[in-house]
Amino acid sequence: MNRGTARAAACALLIFGGGWSALGASPVRAADEGVCAGQSSGKIDVSGSHTTLTVVAPEGQLISGYCVKAGSINNENGPVYVSVNPPAAQVTISHPSGKDISHYSVLYVASTPAPAVTDVCSNLGGDQPTVPAGMTRVNGECVESSPPAATDVCSNLADDQPTVPAGMTRVNGECVEPQGAGTPVSDVCPNMDGVQATVPNGFVISDNQCVPVVPAPAPAPAAVVGSLAVVVPAASPVDGSPIVTPAAPAAPAVVGSLATPLVNPAVSPVNGAVASASRPAAVPSSGGETLPSTGTTSSLLLAAATVTLLLGVGTLRIARRKQHAFEVS
User: Fold this and answer.
1) Which of 8, 59, 101, 156 is the most exposed place for a label (fewest CB within 10 A)?
2) pLDDT by residue (tens digit) across 242-255?
């Protein structure tokens, strides 16, 4: 086999061997080949004595194989092709004979860049390409998600009701049982806005309308009769006519140093007839004023006692009649 045929055979090993991968990791000698094929780097001669060399691939490439020669082919120191699998960015080459390297060549392949790792949680250990379950991302950090606020759609039921319970319907924020299939909830307060399924607090139903509760009236005031407090109704319990309270006795007139009541009531306390009484004659006072004549002291005292007795008897009879009429009714 001539030299041209041997070179063609070496190139065939490179092409059909898929970048040396078919050759495995064992060195392969080129038959009757005196020099290494140029491959990607071209033939590189080595000056000086070097049994090993470290070869570095260019940026963006990797070494997938190389050829090395140490001496004459006749002494089995000719070119040897070595596969590098997987491809590497740096390889130390040597000849199987252990002798100094005379020249070499390198086969490069494009390097595949590693995919960029995305970390969405800067505060967590390791790279987090996505937000972990149960967490949320805030300002580049992953924190535990807050539980959602409880929703209560039934204000009238105990506990929180996130949805209307089965068999119930929601009316004005309250969940109530429907009155029947297809039957709307009745409104017990047609005079109020919205539908009122029940009477609101503080209201009562009057004439099919909800009206505020009216407080009970205050009790009637007590009338004082003598030293007793008697509750006097606004109307007579017998016929409903107004009750006429007897007028108070007239104020006494001062005559000299004596206080003398004026006996002239407008109405008799006994039978209600108009009483007629004559005034005593007027007498001049020491100061020149004209005052009623008082008569003797005993007459004045007797008249005062008589009036007081008549008023007491009349008042007592009226009170008994009212009491009797109230008990009969």
Assistant:
1) 59
2) 555 555 555 554 44
**Token output for 42:** 């071209």
**pLDDT score of 329:** 61
Instruction: State the Cα–Cα distance between residues 316 and 318, nearest whole angstrom.
Output: 6
Q: For the chain, what are the domain ranges?
A: 3-110, 222-328
Beta-bridged to residue 68, according to DSSP, are: 80, 104
Q: How far apart are CA 119 and CA 141, in angstroms?
A: 10
Question: Residue 255 carries which side chain, given as an amino acid letter?
Answer: V
Three-state secondary structure call for residue 221:
coil
Q: Are 195 and 171 in contact, with CB atoms under 8 Å apart?
A: yes
Q: What are phi and psi of 282, to 5 degrees?
A: -80, 140
Q: Quote the tokens at residue 293.
A: 């004549």
- Whole-number average pLDDT of the chain: 73
Taking CA atoms, 199 is separated from 36, 52, 188, 302, in Å, by 106, 103, 7, 71
Q: What angle do CA 4, 9, 14 make, to 5 degrees?
A: 125
Residue 256 is predicted with a pLDDT of 47
* 8-state DSSP, 106: E
Cα separation, 215 vs 143, whole angstroms: 59
Give the pTM: 0.32
Q: Could you tell me the CA-to-CA distances from 147 to 135, 144, 150, 279 in Å, in that order?
A: 11, 9, 9, 100
C-alpha–C-alpha distance, residues 314 and 216, integer Å? 36
Distance CA 31, CA 251 (A): 162
Q: What is the pLDDT of residues 281-301, one digit of tens each?
A: 444 544 555 545 445 566 778
| Total Cβ atoms within 10 A of residue 80 | 24
The whole-number average pLDDT for the span 182-198 is 79
What pLDDT is attached to residue 321? Answer: 80
Backbone angles phi, psi at 255, to 5 degrees: -125, 110
> Encoding tokens for residue 136?
């949320």
What's the rounded Cα separation, in Å, for the pair 97 and 271?
A: 163
